[in-house]
Amino acid sequence: MIDTTAKSGVHAFAPDWEHVRAYKAGELSEQSYTEFYEDKMVESRDMHRAVWDRLSVYPYAAYACYCPAGVFCHRHLFVQHAKSHLESMGWRVRLMGEITKDSFPKP
Predict the structure, then answer these.
(1) According to the model, what pLDDT value does residue 41 have?
(2) Are 43 and 32 in contact (CB under 8 A)?
């Protein structure tokens, strides 16, 4: 599991806390938040290439943050960037959806 949260996650993948705070406070629209995050990830792929390339060592990966399943979140945006980056390295990527408490059989 790769932590993409603003405060404790991998810096190269995390949104800026200021934008997270503004979005949660209703001061920033989903569209504006997306634009800021998309720009940050494009820049991050150039500045932190080795960190991005390290994604290829995991045959399976889950990207995590604190947002609940089914709501708008940067991790959904990040998955697309990770997929694009890994495919540019020649990897075949299959997205499996969100992991939730209901993803696993009950004991």
Answers:
(1) 97
(2) no
